[in-house]
């Protein structure tokens, strides 16, 4: 026995054939009379109530926009620019016998949410300015806006120098896959005016909003040496300091990759060994490229400090360049190498943010000739 589907309309059953007949009739009034739309009790809300019970009709497959809204952080960030971004609580003490400033970072409170989950992964970086070579950093605390650090750091400094020094706290949000976001900063100066100092002094300061334009990525020291008679360029990677933490542990697994560039094309590349779990790796490793004297003016070096990742892709911490077409220190270092052949010339280079590709790969410069045999 066949089954003829029907359409439920309030308490009436409409056969599909009747429905087609109704739709073909002229005028809205005829349809309104057949479906009794003039009845004030007949409305969409009634259908929706019925659908919620039967699971049929309008209730099935309806989109709920509120489930697809993403939490916007721009408004929160903008509202904090004029004021604080939470509070940082810490303890200062000066040890007169050992001549060192003791800093204990206790906790942070009411930090802004930097992740779409509504939390942050905060850590704190500390300098005793104007010295930026000595840097300390707390561990990263996952998914919290009120981290408790309780970590102690020491800064060797003479008591007489304290009026000229500033303690600089930078609060960051750790991001595994992109640039770390700075939450804000706290600056403490005039130590001698602090109550109870040099004895133990407890402070709780508002974290002030700052931009993310200048992020410290660290420094790299290497030497350059060119031997014209052999057409040999030697780059000795010595060490790095204060590298950006790329791992959740607050450290990195850095290695250095050096690319020999010619007119924007990468000719060859070499890399150092990987140093595990450190922000201050020491390499003392030599990388050698064969470059004939007639081509030394055409080439440059692109040097990238990388973070090794056992599971995902290796990440670029930062880069620097040396050569005739490099900027400032990179060009000066290259010129000094050419001026003093056969002599290693070493300099520290700041690492800058990686902005894109360093050039095409696997090519060769048409004018780069085969170097002579050593």
UniProtKB/TrEMBL annotation:
- A single GO BP: calcium-ion regulated exocytosis
Query: According to its UniProt record, where is this protein mainly located?
Result: membrane
Read off the InterPro entries from this record: C2_dom, C2_domain_sf, Synaptotagmin
UniProt keyword terms in alphabetical order:
Calcium, Cytoplasmic vesicle, Membrane, Metal-binding, Repeat, Transmembrane, Transmembrane helix
* C2 domain location: 84-207, 216-349
Under the heading Gene3D superfamilies, the entry gives:
C2 domain (2.60.40.150)
Name where it's found.
Answer: Cytoplasmic vesicle, Secretory vesicle membrane
CDD domains under this entry? C2B_Synaptotagmin-3-5-6-9-10
Ranges that cross the membrane:
none
Q: Does the keyword Ion transport apply?
A: no
Q: Which Pfam families match?
A: C2
Q: Which GO terms describe its cellular component?
A: dense core granule; exocytic vesicle; plasma membrane; transport vesicle membrane
GO terms (molecular function) for this protein are: calcium ion binding; calcium-dependent phospholipid binding; clathrin binding; phosphatidylserine binding; SNARE binding
Q: Which PANTHER family match?
A: SYNAPTOTAGMIN, SYNAPTOTAGMIN IXA
Family membership: Belongs to the synaptotagmin family.
Q: What is this protein called?
A: C2 domain-containing protein
């Amino acid at each position: 026995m066949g089954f003829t589907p029907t359409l439920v309309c309030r308490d009436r059953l409409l056969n599909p054939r009747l429905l087609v007949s109704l739709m073909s009739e002229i005028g809205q009034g005829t349809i309104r009379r057949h479906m009794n739309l003039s009845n004030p009790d007949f409305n969409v809300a009634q259908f929706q109530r019925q659908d919620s019970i039967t699971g049929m009709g309008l209730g099935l497959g309806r989109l709920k926009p509120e489930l697809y809204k993403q939490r916007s952080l721009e408004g929160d960030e903008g509202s904090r620019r004029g004021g604080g971004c939470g509070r940082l609580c810490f303890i200062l003490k000066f040890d007169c016998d050992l001549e060192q400033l003791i800093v204990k970072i206790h906790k942070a409170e009411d930090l802004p949410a930097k992740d779409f989950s509504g939390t942050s992964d905060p850590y704190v970086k500390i300098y005793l300015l104007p010295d930026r070579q000595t840097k300390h950093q707390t561990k990263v605390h996952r998914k919290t806006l009120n981290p408790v650090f309780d970590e102690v750091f020491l800064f060797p400094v003479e008591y007489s120098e304290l009026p000229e020094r500033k303690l600089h706290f930078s609060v960051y949000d750790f991001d595994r896959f992109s640039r770390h976001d700075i939450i804000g900063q706290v600056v403490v100066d005039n130590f001698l005016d602090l109550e109870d100092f040099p004895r133990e002094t407890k402070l709780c300061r508002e974290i002030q909003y700052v931009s993310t334009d200048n992020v410290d990525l660290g420094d790299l020291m290497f030497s350059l040496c060119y031997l014209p008679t052999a057409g040999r360029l030697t780059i000795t990677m010595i060490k790095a300091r204060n590298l950006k933490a790329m791992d959740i542990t607050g450290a990195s697994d850095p290695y250095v990759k050096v690319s020999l560039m010619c007119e924007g094309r990468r000719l060859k590349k070499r890399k150092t060994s990987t140093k595990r779990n450190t922000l201050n790796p020491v390499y003392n490793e030599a990388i050698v490229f064969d470059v004939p004297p007639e081509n030394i003016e055409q080439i440059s070096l692109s040097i990238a400090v990388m973070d090794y990742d056992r599971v995902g892709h290796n990440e670029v911490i930062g880069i620097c360049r040396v050569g005739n077409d490099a900027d400032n220190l990179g060009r000066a270092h290259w010129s000094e190498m050419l001026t003093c052949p056969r002599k290693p010339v070493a300099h520290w280079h700041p690492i800058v943010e990686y902005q894109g590709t360093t050039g095409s790969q696997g090519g060769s410069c048409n004018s780069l000739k085969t170097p002579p045999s050593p």
